[in-house]
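Recall from the previous lesson that a structure prediction takes nothing but the amino acid sequence as input. Here we apply that procedure to Multifunctional fusion protein from Streptomyces heilongjiangensis. The sequence below is the only information supplied.
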Amino acid sequence: MKRHHRSLRTRALLALAVIAGSLAIALTVPVRLGLDLRGGSQIVLETRSTPAAEASREATDRTVEVLRGRVDALGVAEPTLVRSGDHRILVELPGVQDPQKATDVLGRTAQLTVHEVLGRAENADTAAAQADATAARVLPDEAGQPLRLKAAELTGQDVKSADARIDQQSGAGWHVTIDFTDTGRDRWAAITADAACHPAGDPQRRIAIVLDDKIISSPQVATSVTCGAGIAGGTTQITGSFDATEARELALLVSGGALPVPVEVIEQRTIGATLGDAAVTAAAWAAVIGTSLTALFVIAVYRLMGLLATLALACYGLISYAALAALGATLTLPGLAGFVLAIGMAVDANILVFERAREEHAIRNRPSTRSALAAGFRGALSAIADSNITTLIAAGLLFAFASGPVRGFGVTLGIGVLASMVSALLITRALAEYAASRAAVHRRPHLSGIAHTGWVRDRLLRRGPHLMRHPRRWLAVSAALLVMTASGIVVRGLDFGIEFTGGRLVEYATSAPVDPDRARVALAEAGFPRALVQSSGDGRLTVRAEDLTDTDTATVTDTVAGLGGDAEKVRDELIGPTLGDELRRNALIALSLALGAQLAYLAVRFRWRFATAAVGALAHDVLILAGVFAWLGKPVDGVFLAALLTVIGYSVNDSVVLFDRVRELLARDRTAPLARLTNRAILTTLPRTVNTGTGAALILAALAVLADDTLTDFALALLIGLAVGTYSSVFTATPLALELHPRTPAKPQRPTAHDRASRPTGAPRTERGRADRV
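The prediction returns the following C-alpha cells.
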C-alpha cells in the first residue's frame, strides 16, 4: 500500500511539473505561424556552379548572408532566410503578396564591374571574335551599340557604399552615387586618367559600368579632367532614366555585394492574408468542434474515466503547443491538422487502457476498479508503445522527404504522438488512480466506466462469432475491393499536383462566380490552351499550367478578371521541373521506406509472418486510397502524401493492437489453434477499434466539413483510410497471417480458464478445428 501511494505521489508530481513547465512556455514563447496561416511569400533558391566558382556548402552560406542584407533593405518584417541542404536557400517574406519584386532583387547575381572602353565594335559577332583574341568583352551600351571593353579594373569588392539620390536642383532625376574603398579610389583615378587622354566624343573616353553582364551606364569622362590626372575622391554616379524604386533597388544590389554563385528560383508560393486568416479560423473551429464531440463520446462511453481522460486531452493540447514553441517549429496549415489528428492518438491510448481494464475487471482477476486500472495500464503498455512508434516512423519520413507545409505536418504529428503518450501514461494514470482510490468510487464502481464491459463487447461475446473460420473468403473480398478501386488508377490515372509535375498554380477569388468551362475557353483564346481550370468553391477559380511566366500570369489574371469582375490572387505556387521530379522521387522513396520500416519493426516485435501480413494490408490500404482518389478526380499532391503516410500509421496501429493480443494469448496457450486464438483476439480488441475509430472519425468529419478546401481533401483521405484500415487489420492482415502460418493436425483443445471467464453465461462455444503448432 505504501509503495502504491508513493508511486501515485511520484506520478502526480511529475504530471504537475510537466503541466507547469508547459504552461510557462506557452505563456512566454509564441508559436511561429507559417506563411499559409499568416499570408506572405515563400521562395526556394538553388545555387548553381559556374566555371569560376563551385556551388559548395560554404558558397551557399555566403550567398545567404548577401541575400539577408538585400532582404533587410527591402523592409520586410520578420523575414526568414535559412540554408536547406548544401545548395538550397529558403526565404520566407511575411506580408509580401507580390513576390516578383523580391525575386528580381534576390535572384540577381549583382556582379558589378568597371571597364575601360577600347572602342566600338562593327557587330556583335565579329566583336565577340575579337574579344576572344584580346581577352576583352563585347557588350551593347544603353543605346544598343556594341562596345569592346577591356578586362575589369574594378569589381563590387572595391565598392564601399551606394546610395540612391535625386538631383532636385538640376532636375536630372534619380541617380546612384557610388563610393569606392581606398583601393578602389586609386584604381578609379587610374582608369579615368587613361580615359581622359582621348579626345571628347571618342568612345575610348567612356567608362563602362557593368552589372550582371549588362552595361547600365557608360558616361564619358568630363573634359575638365586632364590626361594623367584622373578623378580624385573615389566617387562616381550612375545616371539613367531611373525612378525612385529602380534607383533604390540598384543601390541595394551594388552596396549589398555580388552573390558568390548564381541562384535559380525553383519554388515559389504566395498565400493571401485573407486566405491565411480564413484557414486559421476554419481549422480552429474544426479543432474545437471535433475535439468537443470526441470528448463527449469518450465521457459517454467511459463515464468518470472518460471525463478524466478529457482533462488529460486538454493537457495534451497544452504540452503539444509548448513543445512546438520550445523547439521553434513553424505551425503550418497541414501541421495544424496534424495537431488535431494527434488527439485521436491520445484518445486511442486512453481507450486501450480502459478497454483492457474492463476486461480485467470482467474476468474477476482484478475485483476492484483501482487494481483493474493498474492491470489495464500494464497490459496496454506494449500495444501503446508499438502503435505510437509506427506512427513516429511515418512522421519522421514526412519530415525527411516532404517539403514546405507538409513537412510541418510531420513535425506536429511527431510532437503530438509523444505528447499523447505523456498525456495517457502519466497524466491520465495519475488522475484515474487517484479517482479510483476514492471511497465514493469504490462504493459505486459503475460510475467509473470500468465495472461493465460495454455493449459492443457484450454483444460480441454473447454471440461468439467465429470470424476466422474461412479466412480465404475474407481475402477474396479484399482482393475484389482492391481490384474495383485500384482500377481507377489504370482507367482514369492519378491527377498529380504541381509538387510532383512542376508548373504554376494560381488561385483567384472573383467577385462573381466563373464557370470553369467558360474560363478554359477564354484562356485558350488568350494563348493558354493547355491550362487546367477548376472551381475550388466559394467563388474561387484555380488555374494550373506547366510553364507560366510572370507576364503570362498577369495575362491570366486579366482574363479571369474579365470573366468574373474583380479577381484577387489568393494563392500562387511555382514549382520548377527539377524540384517536381525530386519531390516525386522523394514521395516514392518515402512510401517505400514507410512500408519497409514498418515491416522491419514489426518483424522484430512480432513473427515475420505477422509483419508480412500487416505490411500486405498496408499496401492494400495504400492502393485502395489512391484508387478512390483516382475515381474521384482528386489531386495527388504533398498533402495527399501526408494523408497517405498517416493512413499507414493508423492502419498499422490496429494490426499492432490485434497482433499484440494474439502474441499474449499464444504465450498463455501454445497448443491452441491459431485461428481460435486469433478470433478471440479480434473479439476482445474490436471494442477498442470501434471506439477509437469513432473518436477519430468525429475529428476528421469536423475537418472535412469545416476546414479549408486543402484540408477537406486531407480529411477525406484520412476518413477513407480510417475505414479501410479498420477493415483490413481484421479482414485482410489477420486472414493473411493465418494463411502464411503452417498448419498441422492436432487434437481438439479444452477451453482455458480465460475462455470460460471471458464468455458470458449462455454464450455458445466457439468451434475448434486443427491446431497450429507455434
